[in-house]
Design a protein that fits this description.
The protein is mainly alpha-helical and 458 residues long. The chain contains 14 helices and 7 strands. The protein has helices at 2-8, 26-41, 49-76, 83-110, 130-138, 168-180, 205-235, 250-279, 304-311, 317-336, 345-365, 376-406, 423-449, 451-455; strands at residues 22-23, 77-78, 118-124, 154-160, 199-200, 408-409, 414-415. The longest helix has 31 residues, at 205-235. The chain is globular. Mean pLDDT is 85; it is low at 128-151.
Amino acid sequence: MDEILATLTAPRPDLKPIPGTIPLTPLAAILPPLTYYLGLVLLPPFRTQTSQQLIPIIRSLLALVAGFLFFQLPLKYHVPFSIGLTYQLALVGLYGGCRVLDAFFISPYLFNHIPRRVKYHQEPRSETSGVWRNRALSNSYFSLHFLQPRKAAVTETATTEEGLPKSWKDRASWALELELAMRGAGFTWTSADVRHTKKTWTPTAWDRVHSILLHVLPVLGVSLAIIRYIHVRNLQIEGGLSLSFDDLSFFNQILLTAALGGFLMTGFSLAHSMFAILLAPLKPNPLSYFPPLYTIRIWDLTSIRSFWSYGWHRLFSRLFLVYGVWPGEWIERKVTGKSANEPADIGKVLGGFVSSAFVHSFAAYTVVGGRVRDALGEAEFFASCGVAVVVEEIVKRSIRWFRQRHNYDVSKGTTKSSEMWYDGIVGRVWWISVLLYNGRCFARGWVKAGLVREMAGA
């Protein structure tokens, strides 16, 4: 057993961390979330005058320390036995630090807002007939975490809790729930892009186990098999070295990109379902609440925007909203002179994708030896997706305007439908082509960082 553990934790010779970083220690891993949690316990306002004067100082100090500890995680430490965990350490550090700034400074001081609990009420729907069952089945695929929901379909409504926690026990529970709610689910921090519809379902733990066994694991296994096959047959050479992504044929580049996408989608789904199963006994505690990670079947997507809005996880939605969408909208309004009530869609889209580009490129930066140029693949991918969404919306609106103008029925004084039977086909070909073609930038970075090699078991 000791030999197996030693093998698993042995430093990887192909890991290229930021020069000067040291192996992560247990204390360095525990202190940031612990300090953040203690600060959250003190975040809701206190009643007494003495507390109102002293607590904000202590709370701010804890927040500053937590933010510093989070941000320094990827800049000071690495995980010596795993490239993937070093990559994730950077995501945790950047996400955690940004979350601390949002919770303790941006939201309270700029928007006078402290997250409140949201209680979800689920009422059974009458659509429990065979028609609904077929619809439920059609809405369940490997990334929706379950198959054949055993409970009735429900209509879910949300009400915001009045007031904030006051007792120490409630504060401790509130702080833990908020710290663990990455997407803000269960709080007023939930952005609209996390919860698209009131119509949902309530899967049991067995539903999720059934989905993992029948859908998630098979797709995950096939994805890993393709990744290993391409690495062993086309990338790996003698001496433990690897060729570059550009040495692959175009077909293998696309195939590897698709396999990495399938791995990531099912990997997120597996982790989400496992946590939901483990915490299911806590119901009705909010910690057991796990709304669907993906909200539409992948083959029902017809645009790039719908993929990123409905077909992908929203784990970083709050981060991208605060540090990308809002600044992007502000810049567009300043440049164009739009009022606060007018939509700023271009700034919103580009801001969100630029922030995503920075976050993922920073994570890549920590596993390519701190070389900025080698970490730009993720930035190129997400930036190109943002531009593609903007172009897509312009083309869609232009086509809709053209059709409405030329489909006006003079005799009836009405306009025929602006949708055509082939729109869905064109949309699917478009978004899949863009993601696979531009996704090669992402895959190229993962090959360069050694992540593909590690996933292949080499």
